[in-house]
Amino acid sequence: MSTENRQPSSHELTALQWELLHELRHNSSRAVMLHQMIADRLGLNATDHKCLDYLNRSGPVTAGQLAELTGLTTGAITNVIDRLEQAGYVIRDKDPNDRRRVVVKPAPAATGHMSPLFESLFQSTLALVSRYSEQDARLIVDFLQQCNAIALEEMNKLKEQRP
């Protein structure tokens, strides 16, 4: 039996690895709280705010595509889109490539409400990122991509388990 694919148990972690796990949890909690505060300023809940973020980055998508991007169910996404549309943050429009389909896109006026809330964070993050070498940045990007893949995998497991 090969040991290279074996998962370490928690008692095998080094002090630094435990510190990394602690900081990941701390970062996750801080991010949730920060985005809740931003969502409050926008008059949204945190889920709707983050779905709007996906839309701002992806451009126009169908509800099904947004569900895939976010990992949420199509039913949940329909409710999110309804709330975002009612609040004036998104527009439903005919797909220019297939008039039978509807796409959701950010409302142009909504971007002006969000951008100022992120300017300071963006500038601070730019300053932080610039401190790392290309090699370090590649390692960090790989680590974050793996974390994102794990999070999506866990979301999919939760969806399958249905309460």
Please describe what this structure looks like.
- This protein is globular.
- The protein has 6 helices and 2 strands.
- The protein has a single domain (15-131), classed as Winged helix-like DNA-binding domain superfamily/Winged helix DNA-binding domain (Arc Repressor Mutant, subunit A, Orthogonal Bundle).
- It is mainly alpha-helical and 163 residues long.
- The chain has a two-stranded antiparallel sheet with strand order 1-2.
N-C termini distance: 36 Å
The best one-word shape is: globular
Strands, count: 2
User: Could you tell me the radius of gyration in angstroms?
Assistant: 19 Å
Largest sheet: 2 strands, antiparallel
| Count of alpha and pi helical runs | 6
InterPro entries: ArsR-like_HTH, HTH_MarR-typ, MarR/SlyA-like
Keywords: DNA-binding
Protein name: HTH marR-type domain-containing protein
GO biological process, one term: response to stress
In short:
This protein has 163 residues and is mainly alpha-helical. 69% of the residues lie in helices and 9% in strands. Strands 1-2 form a two-stranded antiparallel ribbon.
Produce the secondary structure layout.
Layout: H1 15-42, H2 46-58, H3 63-70, H4 74-86, E1 90-95, E2 98-106, H5 108-129, H6 134-161
Antiparallel strand pairs: 1-2
Helix pairs in contact: 1-2, 2-4, 3-4
